[in-house]
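On to our target:
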Amino acid sequence: MNPADWPALPPGYTLKLCVSDAFDTACKAAGEGAEDGLMLMVDRPDRCEAALVLRPLDPIQPALTLAYVGLLGLHDGLAALAPAETPASIDWPDRLLVNEACVGGLQVAHGPLVEKEGMADVPDWLVLGITVQMFGDRSDDAPGIELEYTNLHEEGCGEIGVPQLVEAFARHLLLWLDRWQEEGFEPVRRALLNELADKALKIEANGDAWAGDGATKTWRSLRDALRHRSWVLPEPASQPS
C-alpha cells in the first residue's frame, strides 16, 4: 500500500502495517511493551483487519466494556461511510451485522492482571481487533444465498475501502472512548442497546447481559462471552485484485 493511501488516524494513534493477522500481531506487540494507541492494519483489499493496543487503568470487568466501545466505533464508522439506508446493527457480544447478516466483528484479548495506580486486577494491556469482509468470493455465481454471513460489496457498500473504514473506526472509537473515560459506561450502554439487533437483550451496568424473559431469562457473562469470538468469516477462494 502506498503511504499516501494509509488511513489518517487521530492524534494518539500510531499506524503500522503487518503482513497478516493484525490481532495476533498486536497481542504479541502489546506483550513486548507496545505503547497505548498502536494500530496494526493488514494491507488486504478484500478484508479489513486492524487491531489497537490499549493500556487500561481499570480492573478487568470495567476494562472489558471497552469491547462495547470498540463495537460502537466500528458500527458508527461504517454508518458514516455507508449509504444512509444501510441497515447496520450489532449482535451481542461481538458481531457487526448488515441486513441481519454478519460482515465481521470484534475480538478482545488482554494481558496478565496487575496492580496499577493502587487498583488490583488491571489488565497490563488490552487489544481490540476488528475484521470486516469487504468483498466476497469472485468465483461465487450466486452471491447472497448464504444467510449468516455477507460482505459490504453485496450490501451496497462496495465504494468503501479498507483505509477509509479503519480511519472511520479509529475516529469514532476515540469519540466513544472519550465518553467512556469521562462519563463512565452508562452512555455506552444506552447507545449499544439502541443498536442491538436483539431488542429484548438487556445490558447490565457491569457489561453482562440478560437474554429472554420470565422463566426463560438467562444471564450471560461478558467476560466469558469474549473469551472466544462468535464469528468466523468464510475465506474467499479468490480475492479481488
